[in-house]
Design goal:
Rossmann fold, GMP Synthetase, Chain A, domain 3, 5-stranded antiparallel sheet
Length: 439
């Protein structure tokens, strides 16, 4: 008789009634702020400057009223001022640190992230894997990033859940080996794919017409997808392969946040992180459903001193129970504050452009950058990647076509420069490129 498993890996936590969840958050918060103050020179400096001490915080209301904010620039400033490679997030002699990872650095230089053996993101992803359908005894294809030591610093959560990771470099060059591993191990899911990896699969299938993507992926319950928002073309392509994608993002570099099968926002595990949604100007809480900046506090990992971290992400939040059964909040990303530009008074985000660019045959990879010369511009400047093998006319004709398409859609003047897709892919980590650049 087949083994029967619960819907969720930690059902009592993932379906906890909100009053109990908020009690748990408060208890963990009061414990973690004391640890962060003692172990993080950056947090201690920020709290001392604000005239606040952890003993002044007795409730969530106290925390929201008194605790100071910090952001990535604060980490970089501390790092450069004190020549501290960890940016003041941890004392380097702390024996509990097992690795130093970094963020991807697509919006600036990478942020150092002290790691312990079991990270909050590992806790989050194993819950996501279980929800997607991975079970004890299953293999999971896991393409990992070299810049994220935390992603390959141990697989304790996956191993404890009885799953076996089959690990590859997260790069299109690894796709032939990944394909062979899928054939051999018949995994239940792929731990993480990105746009460049999907583009690599697309090219691989074009070069190997004897391989049926649906047959290849038939053992998969799904795959986590990250790096940037899933575009309509990418979704249509993976749907045609029979591969369901679950988008994921970072919850303020504290923990992962991933879609469930309802595909109605990213689930934030509120036993691992406290989430606030604040007006970017006044710092006052905004109502659920209204756009605000997401501010995140770690309440689980004793080494991660992320206390009231301003993420730069503009989001809307929904705290209603999800149809999947979870009670933890969900959020939708509107865009990054730093990615928003103004052209002749119109606010423009990268998400406004991607589907337009993907519609053109030569630029279907959707690779582009907004060149931001100032906060307010009179003309939208774009660098767009194209595939020379797909060019049906001259590059001048393609430039004019793209310029006219974007200008008609956005109602602003547009300048377009073309570059090969491969050149754009060199500008960022393997899973995404910087969508807004100053040069």
């Amino acid at each position: 008789m087949p083994q029967t498993y619960p819907r969720f890996l930690f059902e009592h936590i993932e379906t906890m009634p909100r009053p109990q969840l908020e009690e748990l958050q408060t208890a963990r918060l009061l414990k973690i702020i004391d640890s962060a103050y003692k172990n993080s020179p950056l947090i201690q400096q920020a709290w001392d400057a604000a005239g606040v001490h952890p003993r002044d915080i007795r409730s969530l209301e106290d925390f929201q009223k008194k605790a100071p904010f910090f952001d990535k620039d604060s980490i970089r400033h501390y790092r450069d001022t004190y020549n501290d490679p960890c940016g003041g997030l941890i004392r380097l002699d702390n024996p509990r640190v097992t690795a130093i990872a970094t963020t991807s650095g697509t919006t600036g230089d990478p942020t150092p992230m002290p790691r312990r053996f079991r990270t909050s993101s590992e806790e989050g992803y194993i819950r996501d894997h279980w929800h997607i359908g991975a079970r004890p005894g299953d293999y999971v294809i896991l393409p990992v990033f070299t810049f994220r030591a935390g992603a390959s610093n141990g697989f304790s959560a996956m191993n404890e859940a009885g799953m076996t990771p089959v690990v590859f470099d997260h790069h299109p060059n690894a796709i032939p080996r990944i394909v062979e591993a899928i054939k051999r191990f018949r995994p239940s899911m792929i731990g993480l794919v990105s746009s460049p990896l999907l583009l690599g699969f697309e090219q691989y299938f074009k070069n190997h017409p004897e391989i049926d993507p649906k047959a290849l992926f038939s053992s998969l319950k799904g795959s986590v997808y990250g790096g940037e928002q899933l575009s309509p073309r990418m979704k249509a392509m993976t749907d045609s392969w029979g591969l369901e994608l679950f988008e994921t993002t970072a919850l303020g570099d504290v923990v992962s946040a991933t879609q469930c099968r309802a595909h109605d926002g990213f689930h934030a595990y509120e036993d691992l992180a406290l989430v606030e949604c604040l007006d970017p100007i006044t710092d006052k809480p905004v109502a659920d459903g209204e756009v605000g900046e997401m501010v995140v506090t770690n309440i689980n990992d004793p080494l991660l001193a992320m206390v009231r971290f301003r993420t730069d992400d503009l989001v809307t939040i929904n705290r209603d129970p999800c149809s999947c059964g979870r009670t933890h909040l969900r959020f939708h990303i509107v865009g990054r504050k730093s990615d928003q530009i103004q052209v002749q008074g119109r606010n423009i985000l990268p998400r406004d452009l991607r589907s337009l660019i993907e519609q053109q045959h030569e630029t279907q990879a959707g690779l582009f950058q907004i060149i931001k010369s100032s906060a307010q511009m009179e003309q939208l400047s774009l660098r767009i990647g194209y595939d020379p093998a797909l060019l049906t006319n001259s590059t001048d004709e393609l430039i004019n076509r793209l310029r006219d398409l974007v200008a008609a859609h956005l109602g602003v003047p547009v300048r377009v420069e073309l570059t090969h897709n491969d050149e754009l892919l060199k500008l960022g980590p393997p899973h995404k490129i910087p969508r807004v650049t100053k040069q």
